[in-house]
Amino acid sequence: MRIVCGGSSDVGRVRSNNEDSYRIVAPLNLFVLSDGMGGEAHGEVASALAVESVAGHCLEAQIDQTAPLFGEPAVGWSERTKRLVSAVHLANRNIYTSAEAHAEQQGMGATLSAVWVEGERMSVAHVGDSRVYLLRAGGLHQLTSDHSLVAEQVRRGMLTPAEAERSEMQSVLLRALGTQPDVEVDTDEHALIPRDVLLICSDGLTRMVTEPEIAGTLQAETDPQLAAEKLVALANENGGADNVTVIVVRVDAEAKGLFSWLRGSARKTGSNGDAGGGA
Q1: Domain assignment present for 253
Q2: E strands along the chain, which residues?
Q3: Is residue 31 part of a domain?
Q4: Is 276 a domain residue?
Q5: pLDDT of residue 168
Q6: Is the pLDDT of residue 276 over 90?
Q7: Average pLDDT over residues 37-57
Q8: How many domains in the chain?
């Protein structure tokens, strides 16, 4: 299968600085997104540490497969998923250590959602309330669970989804990178088929744009870079109350013969996000 991707990030219409970060490591088909928290520049520090830690750890493992694994062993998963989870644990440690060493950074943290595609399977690692979605056959499916207070209240039947959307407690996270020495990482693996579309996004998108609008945009715009840019623009049109960051990944069947040669294997990336190789 052939992977085509794009990404976009924007400060939004309310915030003065962008605390989101993302990286697209095209040679590895690795996609990492983080939403920082902590105010001033500290959220930016946390999210940048998160994405760089994950990208760097996974790139290192391609060179040295004996590189150490961090955190609790991800029992029962593939080697690639184990490495991705290890990278998230390393990111948590790096953010926590930095905050301990710099008084002005104390209290900073970050969400993280990462997808690593290999052949017809993908590994997912997740902490916080950024999300991973799969669009398949017209249906949009959320693959991650939010680690937020209102999401937990919905799961327990204490709030309806509509009440959660209006709650002033939406920003309260129950789990994030860097706030504790150790972190629990949600892990999953999924099979992929041609024409699947993956969306990785910060909550600046999902608070401003409904899931039907997201699905409609992904279906109408088949170019991943343009789709990412349109989703960011739509979030801003609807108020832009937060930073908004989007990665869109499209899975295509590998074309054969002359047509495949003409198309090449070009991948599109957002300006905030290329790492470890060209677009």
Answers
A1: yes
A2: 2-10, 20-25, 30-37, 109-110, 112-118, 121-127, 131-136, 139-142, 186-191, 197-201, 244-252
A3: yes
A4: no
A5: 66
A6: no
A7: 90
A8: 1
